[in-house]
Amino acid sequence: MASRRGGVSLPDRPSNNSSSVLTNISCSSIVTRGKEAAGDAAFVTKKLLRNTGKVTWIIDTTFLFLVVPLIVKMDREQQLNDLELQQASFLGTPAPK
């Protein structure tokens, strides 16, 4: 053990045994396959998110151009029907069905 004055004692580093073990582990086929799998997963996730954004854009614009005008038209029709019922009740005539 190497010691220093007024500090913490740390063990001496072994010469080449630990670095060769780490090198062997990092170059093993399992680690290489894991890195490839992680890279493939990241690529697929990126593509999926990009395509999901495109699909979301298409759905949103379709909704804005087709569904929102339909909702506005239905609301106007309902207001017109309510106005006709209100006028009919003021005039005392039977409400149209």
From TrEMBL:
It is a single-pass membrane protein. Pfam families: Tom22. InterPro entries: Tom22, Tom22_pln. Its main location: mitochondrion. GO terms for cellular component: mitochondrial outer membrane. The chain crosses the membrane at residues 55-72. Residues 1-22 are annotated as: Disordered. Keywords: Membrane, Mitochondrion, Mitochondrion outer membrane, Protein transport, Receptor, Translocation, Transmembrane, Transmembrane helix, Transport. CDD domains: TOM22. It is found in: Mitochondrion outer membrane. The keyword Repeat does not apply. GO terms for biological process: intracellular protein transport. Belongs to the Tom22 family. PANTHER family: MITOCHONDRIAL IMPORT RECEPTOR SUBUNIT TOM9-2. This is Uncharacterized protein. It comes from Glycine max.
